[in-house]
Amino acid sequence: MSLEGSPTVPGKVKLYFTVSVPGGTKPYEKLFVVGSATDLGIWDPNKALELIPCSENNEVWKGTIATSLKKVEFRYFIGYYMEKECYHKSGEEKILIISQWETFLKPRAVMLQVESNLKNGVCREKVNDEFGFHAGRSRISHGWLHDKHQNEILLRIGGNPLVFFKGNKVVEDTFRIKVTPLDVRYKSYGEESDDDTATEVDGKQDQDNGIGNCVLPSFSETDIAPLSKENPIYKRQHEYGEKFKKGVDYFMFRTQSVSIEHLGFCIEIFVEKTCKDSGKPYYSKKCTAFAFPSSLPDTSGKTQIPLMSKNAEPIGKIEIDYLFVKPLQKLSLLECLSMEKTYIRHWKKRSTVEVGHRGMGDSYTKHTAARENTIHSLNYAAENGADMVEFDVQLTKDKQAVIFHDFHVLVSVAKKNGRNNVNQEQNVEGLKVTDSRSSINSDDSRKSSNDSQVSGVSEQGTDMYELAVKDLTLQQLKLLHLDHVKHKTMNWDKASRVTSDINECSSRHSFPTLVEALTMVDSGVGFNIEVKYPIIQIDGVHECSNYFERNEFVDIILTDVLTYAGNRRIVFSSFDPDTCLMISLKQNKYPVLFLSVGNDTKYMVYKDERTHSSMNAVHFIAGTNLLGVNFHSEDVLKDQSSIEAAKKYGLVIFVWGDELNDKKHVEYFKKVLKVDGIIYDRIGEDETRKNIFTVEKEMRRALFDRITTGKIDSPEKTPQKGIKSLQKFCSITLGDPIYDVDEYKSHRKQRAWSPDTFQHQKDQRHREGKEYRGSNSLSYNNRKLSYSKESS
Mind telling me which InterPro entries this protein's record contains (predicted)? Predict the structure, then answer.
């Protein structure tokens, strides 16, 4: 819609959108506004209003719509277009890619009845928004994979990636590395320069690296996250790459593509030299590697690519890790992910959230009141006042998402000559096993079973074999007699067994499905869903080899959650860094925490460098813009520097570990380190507590009743009480607007009024270095709520 001369539709208001982008946008990027109005796409980014640049450097963008709505909510986002097939010269099959978008919990809002000029029929004509800044806070996130053709490709380089053939070493321990994508169907990447110093010519390659004569490219630029540097956040690459030191640095590169079957990469190695005549530094390209589609055969893995000299001779190889992240394959879910609501970067600042570990705690190696990871245990924790419950999710052989912690179980299998197995053998989906539940009903038979399992062989004619959960169907897991893998070598008299007694109710049975948890556990308790994907330990041992393909694995779990979660509070977590990235890229609703083991703890460290320490975990999450880190208590009790670093980057901080079973450590993390969440066993057993979300809900309801009956206290008479009441009513979170109390009191009975009415004035005054205050005002800055009364 044109900016000038568009007539105002009778009965409608002409609504203006003007937004500035500090530093401007890239030449190929565009600004969009999406929102609750039809002309804004009803929160569908593919139907959003494309704004028009109004400055030479693309810093200011404008657009208008005509609407009769009383209230319009909206967000800005930056995007660009790609084409899957470059021969579509007209660009009719272009695909929108969301580069960055505003992820405030509450979108921008305008009350047209209040803010519009009734004489002229216009609204917000002179309001200039700033992209990513609203209500006193900044919140910008990387886009998610919202189109069925869209993919994100991650390349990782660390350790000692370059290996040269004997006598061909052309670089030392420090060099510069650059990764550039290309489309193998079209014009070649570029020609090598014969001049060792004339690398400036290579700068033209970015305009000619595979796009050829296409109207639009099939891939994006490649950004770099130097996770080993002080600033690990994704950024554009330097013309001659990023400086890399062998054995110290770890880099992640990301590219998006809508045609991954034709995507390749050029990896260039530069060294810095000094000109003898002028003394000025210059960069010399020493070798190049081309990763063609055949070099990246799977969706994840390691690959070695030949390094070629300037004379096109092989001189060595470079090793890289790679990961292809695909969009959700269920199209109906993909299309339901709108821009209306998002929690991916939201965490309300409140007292520490307390999370029940596996419900009521680890029951297979410790004594607890309920069998871990069961519906009964999760509800038990909810009844005990847990704010959230944590549990582990993995897949069965028939690809059902189930709740169970370990990757393996002990299965009771009948011996060929077992005398006590008559009429107890059954065929469960082709697996001939013994249903031993009937033999453990009495105390005597239970004791006999326990004694035999210590040695791993049953005296009742059965053997205990270790099998992966992924190799058993859901039906087999529910019908077989199973035990915990640690019970094979040790006698755990006080611990519960994996297989329940035959007379126990179903809610106490192991292996409930994720769907059952989402539909049967108290909806008032939040879920911390740990996604269990096996990875390689630093000693080379794989937690569970030949596992499901990552994309398929994550899709199944996300499908269950997006279908059945409703309004439940949910945060995902995983020890696998790639799984964390996949969850964040495949959906735009729920936040993700990275679980860290730390170093020098009782648990084995993983091979992936991002997991080697708590500080590495902080840099990984800060660099990729995820919600936060779930630290291991044993590690951070010895060294709190990683927690301080996480606070510096504005990350949410959770803590897990056996140390939290000691109340003094719980109090230390809550009151001294002030973490956002703690996960521990046997929640609510030592003291009575109430779910914090329930408490907040009851307080809001009580305050609303007082407001509607006119019985709310005046802030002047009872400042602290009045402030807290207004804080709850307005749902003020860290960085929310500074609301004028006098205006609030005068308008609180007008249904059309909203605190957002005054937001544009407040933002403008903020940029001018002023504060928006009335005679009495609320300020929620620096995480503290302050009250002040200015003299007239």
Answer: C2_GPCPD1, Carb-bd-like_fold, CBM20, GDPD, GP_PDE_dom, Ig-like_fold, PLC-like_Pdiesterase_TIM-brl
